[in-house]
Structures are given as C-alpha cells and as structure tokens.
Amino acid sequence: MRIVKLLFALLLIGSFLVFVAQNSILVEVSFFNYRGYTPVFVLVLISALIGFLIAFLYFFPREIKLRGTVDNLREGAKSLNRGFLLKAEHHFQKNSLLEPLLCLSLYEREETSKMLSLKSPLSAYMLLKLHLLEQAEEKFKRTLETDQENLLALKGLRDISFLKGETDRSVEYQERVLKLCEKWDKENQKRVLAELLAFLWRTNKEVETAEKAFDLYRTPLTYSVCIMSLFDQEKKKDAIKLFEKSFEDNLQNEVLTLLLAEEPTLTKLMDVIQKREQQISKVVLLMIYLRLGLFSKVKSLIDDVPDYYRCLAMLFMSHRDEERTCAKAFNDLLYLWECTCGVRYKEYTPLCPNCLKWNKLELKIKEG
Fold it and tell me: Considering the entire predicted model, what is its pTM?
C-alpha cells in the first residue's frame, strides 16, 4: 500500500512539473487599478486556491456540526448498548436529530415529563406504550397537523380511538394507514381493518360493514360477524354454508367460541354442529351445550374434558342454588383467549390493551 501511495505522489508531482513547464508563458492580469504580468500556471493555481478556500469556508462549519452529531450518536449508542441510559441521554439531547433515540432511553426510565417536551412522534408512541392515552393523543394530533401522512401518528391515533371505544374513528384512521403502509405490512394492516370493521358491525349492524370485513380478511371474528349478519338478513342457507366454510379454514373452534353469547345463532347452527362434532374441540362443544341447556349432551362429554370444565358442567347441572351460583362464579373466571404477552381475556379483542399488539390473541383450551 505504501508503494502505491508513493507512486501516486510521484505521478502528481510529475504532472504538476509538466503543467508548469507547458504553461510558463507570461500573461497580463488586470484587477481594478492593478495591472501586471504573471505566468499562466500561477494564475491557474491562484484561481484553484481561491475556489478551494471559498468551498472550505462554506462547508467547514457544517462539517464541525456533523462531526459533533456523529460523535454524540456514537457515544450515545455505545452507552445505550451498555445499559447506561443517563449517559446515553446526555449525548442524545445535544442534537434534535437524535430525539428518536432519546425517546427510547427516556421510555426505559419512564421519564414522562421529559418526553412531553420532545417534538418527535416517537415520544408520543412511547407515551402510548406507557398507557398515557391523553398525552399521546395530543402529541399525535400535533404531528398530523404538520405531516398528514405520518404513519406512526395514524397508527397511534387508531389504537387510542379503539381503546376509548371510538371504533368508527379507529376505522377511519386504519383506512389511511392501509393506503400508506409499506408492502411488507399490507396483509397485516388488512387484517386489522377487517377486525375493526367487524367490531364496528356490532354497533351499526350494517350489511356492507360485515361483508367488507369478511372480504378484506378471513378471521374467526369476521366469520362470526358475517354469519350473524346473514342470519339477521334471514339468509339461513348462506349463513350455514359460511359456517361450514370455517371448517375448511380450521377456524371452527374460534368461530364457535365467539358465538357462545349468541344463543339464537347457535341454535340455528345446531344441525351442522352435531354433524361435525368430531371436528370440534370437546371443551367448545361442552360450552355450547351448557349455554343451550342441553345437559344430556353435556353428560356424554364430561369424561373427555379437563377437571376444570368437568366441575363447571356438574355445578351448572346441579339442582341446588348454591352450586349453580358457584358455577356462575367459575364461569366468570373462564378466560379462553390469551395474548402472546401472556395476558388472558374473557372476551376476544383484536388489540391487546396490555401490549398494544394487534391480532395476537389465540384460543387457549387444554383438552382432556
């Protein structure tokens, strides 16, 4: 490498000497009242030097600032990787460009007061993760005032709206998210919108809402909502056909669990349920028969389910008021849905209020 550098230096010197030898002719130079003679090569070199100085004086202050930012980023990242959060903050707060990383450090230390003073939308996201909905909502809205296509703000406001029970507004935000999101995230955002529309159907009962939800993405929730919508329209054959289709997608247990509170719907589906008993979880069947008061069917399943469900069934079938009261208490403790974060829920929800992740709940049933 040293030989290459030496040869390159010699080549530059040789080229310079050739340039001097070929451009040593004197030329007249005039500048205001000055008039004189100088070799051409000197004039060229002076012009090049002046050009270099102008560029240097223009870019040097920016380079100093950039170097400072890089140094703060390097030292801050090093401290963050080693777990020294306060040291990391000291470096990150020196430049507004490093605010997203500062947010991460403040979030770990739960310094909410400092996060409120930051402009980065990531600070609003961190406030949301800390379940400070009002503060996060205010910051997200401020972000949208200056950047209508800020995906982070739109997702944050979607989540907050859903948690506050404003499903229609959450759907509006999600429709904008779906238009803006990147290709890798399209399918996931379609599912989010589908389940939001399914939730919205519960309040507006509009046929188009249920159909759009199912067409967007097939999930247990969109299946159950579309089945109920078809029954509401008195399209019994279509509803039963759709229910049978859920078996093809292996979603029958989840769909039936979501329909447990809908006794009229379960009654209309009984022919299919009895015909396909072998494809349905024993626990789900037990819960259905208990819900409909079909105790003769329950008795045939008692030996095939775990102890918890066996006790629940026996208490429900008891003629003693005290035991039936205990059965209701047992039933209130039945949490069939579990998120990947470990929190269990009695009712299905597309957004886990604990970890704020979408579509992470699964039906958790222990078979006997």
Answer: 0.79
